[in-house]
């Protein structure tokens, strides 16, 4: 007998900006991802703009737009998100392939600027609204439950450039208008919602950078506070519109370990969990900041604009379920004589017990079990793993087949870890693998960092037919779903 509940939500996940393409069609406005170039594990993606003297320039996505400059699509640059994998036009074909694998759910996001091109309009762009209605209807045709992320790293560019983005409290209202429109328009079609993708990853430059300045902390904590308030208010609106809505948070779930048993390392690791995992999780699940948050603000001289109403909203807007992405664990230490790794999102101390992907991400299924057990015990809320997967190079054979045993091995080990966590009492309700179809990498902008069961013929320079084909893992996952997680061979 399978340990997975009989209505377990097996499926896959993507995000609008990484799959849709059609970046300027049918009234869609641009998002920051549309002025972000491709990159690689060694060369970071760049955001492009024109400065006050008319020069074409590039900067890191964490830098601020200089005075007098404006974001711009430059003719000499390639922007992979403009094409994505063209799912805007090919959603029927993709959904049919998901259905062939037996998906019970498909996690996707709604592009904010497809509904509200600038983010500030009163009325939504009807073409955008109708597009997603058709997508949800197509999913329902196959009994695939949509699991919808409202915000997946794609604030409209206009809000970023002209309204101060998330550093401005007013953006909460714009976001809520967008979220409410989604809840109303898709009532009855969508029941599972996530308010913000990887909310704890919003400002990596402070929370993930040991050398961040107090000023960066001030900005990061402000942005996070506004997003946490927006999330809590969205939960309340979503429940008021449809009591049956299941609304979750979404945390970038890295599992942290202490590299040694030096008590200093143990403390450092605990503080790492507080800062990077519990900070947002506690607010979204318990309705208030943890005590350590106040210490963090004090240490970095952060003064937050927290109103009495905010505190009430945070309390009232706790989520129904805890969802998270899980790719890797990371180790921390106070010691300096240690081996280090390099990679996007993963630079840190090397754990000698683990292997690392070509992008420097550790493979650690036990870390997933540990994370599930630890977090379930903390919040006692239903959980869904909404991202997990291996970014790898795939080779297309002469006959068109794609053999990806490394991906199958990765998933097999993680599904076994999930089963162990369920046996240990965790209320795990679903699993959506990341990039069930190849997507543009968020971190590096590459196509060759592939996650999919479905291969997309497209390279890093935008060359390819965009044709879809099934990898070996496609057939394997189909068996896994059909056996409700029992047949992992
Ligand atoms: C998560 C994001 O951080 O990781 C996804 O929610 C992203 O958008 C995924 O694609 C994998 O990261 P990357 O950099 O390999 O695309």
Quick description:
The protein is α/β, with parallel strands linked by helices and 489 residues long.
Note down, in words, how this protein is organized.
The chain has 489 residues and is of the alpha/beta class. The chain is built from 14 helices and 19 strands. β2 (47-50) and β3 form a beta hairpin. α2 (87-101) packs parallel to α4 (126-141). The longest helix has 28 residues, at 214-241. The structure holds 6-O-phosphono-beta-D-glucopyranose. 6-O-phosphono-beta-D-glucopyranose binds at residues 15, 18, 197-198, 252, 325, 344, 387, 391, 434, 441-444, 449.
Secondary structure elements and pairings:
Blueprint: E1 9-13, H1 16-19, E2 47-50, E3 56-59, E4 70-71, H2 87-101, E5 105-109, H3 112-115, H4 126-141, E6 145-151, H5 157-162, H6 170-185, E7 192-196, H7 204-207, H8 214-241, E8 246-252, E9 255-258, H9 263-286, H10 291-299, H11 308-316, E10 321-325, E11 329-332, E12 340-341, E13 348-349, E14 355-356, E15 362-363, H12 365-379, E16 383-387, H13 405-423, E17 428-434, E18 454-456, E19 468-470, H14 472-482
Parallel strand pairs: 1-5, 1-17, 5-6, 6-7, 7-8, 8-10, 9-11, 10-16, 16-17
Antiparallel strand pairs: 2-3, 2-4, 12-13, 14-15, 18-19
The structure holds 6-O-phosphono-beta-D-glucopyranose (BG6).
Helix content: 25-40%
Principal-axis shape equals globular
Strand content: 15-25%
Structural class by sheet pairing and helices: alpha/beta
Low-pLDDT segments, ≥5 res? none
Task: Give the spatial strand order of the biggest sheet.
Answer: 1-5-6-7-8-10-16-17
Number of helices: 14
The set of bound ligands, ions and cofactors reads: 6-O-phosphono-beta-D-glucopyranose
Major β-sheet annotation: 8 strands, parallel, barrel
Number of strands: 19
End-to-end Cα distance, whole Å, is 16 Å
- Rounded average pLDDT: 96
How large, in whole angstroms, is the Cα Rg? 21 Å
């Amino acid at each position: 007998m399978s340990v997975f509940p009989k209505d377990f939500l097996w499926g896959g996940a993507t995000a609008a900006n990484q799959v849709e393409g059609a970046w300027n069609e049918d009234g869609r406005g641009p998002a920051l991802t549309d002025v972000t170039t491709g990159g690689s594990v060694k060369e970071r993606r760049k955001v492009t703009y024109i400065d006050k003297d008319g020069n074409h320039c590039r900067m890191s996505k964490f830098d601020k737009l200089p005075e007098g400059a404006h974001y711009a699509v430059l003719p000499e640059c390639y922007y992979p998100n403009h094409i994505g994998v063209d799912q805007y036009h090919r959603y029927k074909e993709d959904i049919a392939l998901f259905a062939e694998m037996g998906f019970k759910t498909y996690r996707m996001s709604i592009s904010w600027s497809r509904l509200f091109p600038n983010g500030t309009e009163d009325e939504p762009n009807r073409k955008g609204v109708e597009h997603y209605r058709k997508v949800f209807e197509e999913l329902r045709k196959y009994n695939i439950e949509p699991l919808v992320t409202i915000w997946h790293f794609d604030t409209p560019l206009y809000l970023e450039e002209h309204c101060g983005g998330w550093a401005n409290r007013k953006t909460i209202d714009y976001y809520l208008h967008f979220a409410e429109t989604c809840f109303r328009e898709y009532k009855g079609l969508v029941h599972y919602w996530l308010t913000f993708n990887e909310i704890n990853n919003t400002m990596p430059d402070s929370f993930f950078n040991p050398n961040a300045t107090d000023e960066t902390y001030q900005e990061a904590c402000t942005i996070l506070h506004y997003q946490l308030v927006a999330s809590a208010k969205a939960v309340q609106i979503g429940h008021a519109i449809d009591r049956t809505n299941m609304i979750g948070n979404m945390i970038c779930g890295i599992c942290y370990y202490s590299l040694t048993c030096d008590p200093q390392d143990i403390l450092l690791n605990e503080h790492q969990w507080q800062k990077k995992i519990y900070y947002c999780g506690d607010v979204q699940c318990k309705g208030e900041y943890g005590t350590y948050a106040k210490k963090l603000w004090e240490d970095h001289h952060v003064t937050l604009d927290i109103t009495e109403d905010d505190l009430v909203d945070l309390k009232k807007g706790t989520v129904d379920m805890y969802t998270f992405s899980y790719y890797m664990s990371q180790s921390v230490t106070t010691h300096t004589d240690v081996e280090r790794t390099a990679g996007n999102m993963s630079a840190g101390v090397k754990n000698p017990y683990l292997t690392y992907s070509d992008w420097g991400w550790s493979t650690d299924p036990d870390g997933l079990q540990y994370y599930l057990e630890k977090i379930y015990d903390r919040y006692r809320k239903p959980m869904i793993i909404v991202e997990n997967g291996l970014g790898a190079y795939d080779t297309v054979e002469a006959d068109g087949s794609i053999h990806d045993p490394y991906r199958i091995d990765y998933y097999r080990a993680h599904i076994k870890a999930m089963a162990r966590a369920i046996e240990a009492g965790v209320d795990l309700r679903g699993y959506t693998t990341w990039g069930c179809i190849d997507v543009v990498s968020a971190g590096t902008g590459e196509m060759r960092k592939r996650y999919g069961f479905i291969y997309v013929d497209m390279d890093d320079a935008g060359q390819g037919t965009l044709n879809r084909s099934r990898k070996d893992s496609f057939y394997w996952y189909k068996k896994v779903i059909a056996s409700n997680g029992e047949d992992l061979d």
